[in-house]
Amino acid sequence: MPKSKKKSTGIALVLSCEHAGNRVPPAYRKLFRGQQRELSSHRGWDPGAIELARTMARETGAPLLANTVSRLVVETNRSVGPKLFSEFTRPLGRDERKELVDRHYQPHRGAVEAVIRSALRTHDRVVHVGVHTFTPVLNGKKRTADVGLLFDPKRKMEVDFCEVWLHALHWEAPLLRVKKNYPYKGSSDGLTTTLRGKFPAKRYVGIELEVNQALMEGPARRWTDIPNRIARSLMLLIAPAND
Fold first, then answer.
1. What is the rounded CA–CA span in Å between residue 45 and residue 30?
2. Residue 207 domain-assigned?
C-alpha cells in the first residue's frame, strides 16, 4: 500500500536577518579603504539586529538565517536593480557585479526561500519575520516609535497577525511605543515583498520587525530584556496555533 502523506499542521516560524553585520569580503576590501566610519554606521549594517534575532531564535526555537556582509557591499533586502549596490560597488564592471550577486546576495535569499519551502511541506503556514533595527533620527527627523511592524495591507493574514502581535507586545512590554508600517511601508521593496510573489497569501505571512536603535543607548539590562519580551510576545501568537 502507498504510504500516506503526513498531514501539515500548525504554523512554522522562520527568522531572517538581512543586515546582521558589516563584513567586507577580501575581494572587495580595496573599495572600502578609509571607509570604516561608513561601514560602522547604519549605512553599513543594522546595529543590534543580530543580537535581537539570536535571542528570538533561542526563545522560539525558530531557524535563523543571517547575512553578515555589509549592505554597502550588496543590499540583500532589495530586489535586483539600482538600489542593490552602493557608491562603493556600483563602479564595478558588469561581470564583477554579477559575481558579487552570485556569491553574496543569492545565497542568503535562496536559503531563506528554501527553508520556507521546506517548512510548508509540514505546516499549514509559515510566518517569516525579517529582523531589523532603525536609526533614531533620519535626515534630522526623530522617529517616534520603539518598534515597527511592517506588513502588506492588502494581505489580510498579515494585517490580522500584526494587529494581534501589537496587542501582545503591549502586554509583554507596555512601555514600548509600537506602530504599524513604521518607519517604512511594509509593501515597499524588500525580501518579504519578493517572497509574497512566490507563496500564496494564505500560507506565507511576511513581516518585517523594526526596532529603534535608541533602545540600545539606555541601561544594558533594558536592552537585554527587550529582545526577550519581543520573543515572548511572538510566542503568544505562534504557540497557541500549534497546540
1. 19
2. yes
For residue 50, what are the CA distances in angstroms to 1, 22, 192?
A: 48, 11, 18
Condensed to tens digits (0 to 9), the pLDDT of residues 131-150 reads: 999 999 999 999 999 999 99
| Residue 212: strand pairing partners | 134
pLDDT per position as a tens digit, 7-23 = 557 999 999 999 999 99
pTM over 0.70: yes
The CATH number that applies at residue 73 is: 3.40.630.40
* 6 belongs to a structural domain: no
Instruction: Enumerate the β-bridge partners of residue 16.
Output: 65, 130
Query: What is d(CA 242, CA 111) in angstroms, rounded to the nearest whole number?
Result: 24
Q: What cell does 219 get? A: 541601561
Name the residue range of residue 32's domain: 11-241
Q: What is the DSSP letter of 26?
A: G
Cβ–Cβ < 8 Å for 25, 104: yes
